[in-house]
Write a structure and sequence with these properties.
By secondary structure, the protein is of the alpha/beta class. It folds into 2 domains: about 210 residues, Quinone Oxidoreductase, Chain A, domain 1 (Alpha-Beta Complex), CATH 3.90.180.10; about 130 residues, Rossmann fold (3-Layer(aba) Sandwich). Helices cover about 25% and strands about 25% of the residues. It has 12 helices and 17 strands. The strands form 4 sheets. Strands 3, 4, 5, 8, 9, 16 and 17 form a 7-stranded mixed sheet that branches. Strands 12-11-10-13-14-15 form a 6-stranded parallel sheet. α9 links the parallel β14 and β15. α4 crosses α5. The longest helix is centred in the C-terminal third of the chain and has 14 residues. The chain is globular and about 60 Å long. The two termini are about 20 Å apart. About 45% of the residues are buried.
Length: about 350
């Protein structure tokens, strides 16, 4: 099945149009016309080979929403015309303990990424959502309950949304809990929205005073400028949970100090260089924890999408045409987006 895509041929060449092949849907497959695809910082890292193991040609994109065009004979959950999503995974072993528990992101045999993952399909690795079509096995396709007019804002939920939802749920963010969100970007803005909707008292931490009103508008109850030592000291020992979304190396100690006894700070940002080693004594004397979390399983991703549809939650986005992707990458490096770029795949013809 022919498809149009945008791909990088090397780490140093810009993305450009590329005709690719998608497999015809097998018995358990769902064929999808892609309508929108969010732009994640992971896309940039991968196409520029800042992460090891990039396979070229690389078609990035794992925040996909679209419409079902055909289903295989054994598919029971979807039919042609359904609005659906595809996130960061398109396969896993389906038989290890993690997969059995609905935690495919921790598959003990390694999940297959939506792009740059090994696959029997040509060219031997998966090609992602910067494309007008994709074929995915039924188990990794998600129902979209939002109105069609909101679909562009739904796309980033498939990565930024679930990356923040999963730890918020796992560490029981909700009424009576004081929750901190560190960083107000693609991940952080979704963390604020979701923690607020779950009923927690939400405090946004930012290095920039200029983001104060934005954070309040997103649903934060308080905003703390983390460079202000006095303001940080006032927060000491008060947080049940802190979600740290920052993808740059920084000092973790002030946030550890902000945790209550038995509090946890979970890291979801992946810095290029390691964080400075935190002080151990505050952890020991408060029985505090530093944890990590990776996207989410299919069941909890569906739970998140259903919750967001019910609450009317979408990402704050800026729509772009496919041929504007390199400029979007440049702006993303400068944090010049509120808060996620989303590609309108109707513009793919213009890009060719």
């Amino acid at each position: 099945m022919k498809a149009n895509a945008y791909a990088a041929q090397s780490a140093t060449t810009p993305l450009a149009p590329l005709a690719i092949q998608r497999r015809e849907p097998g018995p358990g497959d769902v064929a999808i016309d892609i309508l929108h695809c969010g732009v994640c910082h992971s896309d940039l890292h991968q196409v520029r080979a800042e992460w090891e193991g990039t396979l070229f040609p690389c078609v990035p994109g794992h925040e996909i929403v679209g419409r079902v065009t055909a289903v295989g004979a054994n598919v029971t959950k979807f039919k042609a015309g359904d609005l659906v999503g595809v996130g960061c995974m398109v396969d896993s072993c389906q038989h290890c303990s993690a997969c059995d528990e609905g935690l495919e992101q921790y598959c003990e045999n390694g999940f297959t990424g939506t792009y740059n993952g090994e696959t029997p399909d040509a060219p031997g690795h998966t090609l992602g959502g910067y494309s007008d079509k994709i074929t995915v096995r039924e188990e990794f396709v998600l129902r979209i309950g939002h109105d069609e007019k909101d679909l562009a804002g739904v796309a980033p939920l498939l990565c930024a949304g679930i990356t923040t939802w999963s730890p918020l749920r796992h560490w029981n963010a909700g009424p009576g809990k004081k929750v901190g969100i560190v960083g107000i970007g693609g991940l952080g803005h979704m963390g604020i929205k979701l923690a607020h909707a779950l009923g927690a008292h939400v405090v946004a931490f930012t290095t920039s005073e200029s983001k104060r009103q934005d954070a309040l508008d997103l649903g934060a109850d308080e905003v703390v400028v983390s460079r202000n030592e006095e303001d940080m000291a006032a927060q000491a020992g008060t947080f049940d949970f802190i979600l740290n979304t920052v993808a740059a190396s920084h000092n973790l100690d002030p946030f550890i100090a902000a945790l209550k006894r038995d509090g946890t700070m979970t890291l979801v940002g992946a810095p290029e260089h390691p964080h400075p080693s935190p002080q151990v004594f505050p952890l020991i004397f408060g029985r505090k924890s530093i944890a990590g979390s990776l996207i989410g399983g299919i069941a909890e991703t569906q739970e998140m999408l259903d919750f967001c549809a019910e609450k009317g939650i979408t990402a704050e986005i800026e729509r772009i045409a496919m041929n504007e992707i390199e400029g979007a990458y440049d702006r993303m490096l400068k944090s010049d987006v509120k808060y996620r770029f989303v590609i309108d795949m109707a513009t793919m013809d213009q890009a060719a």
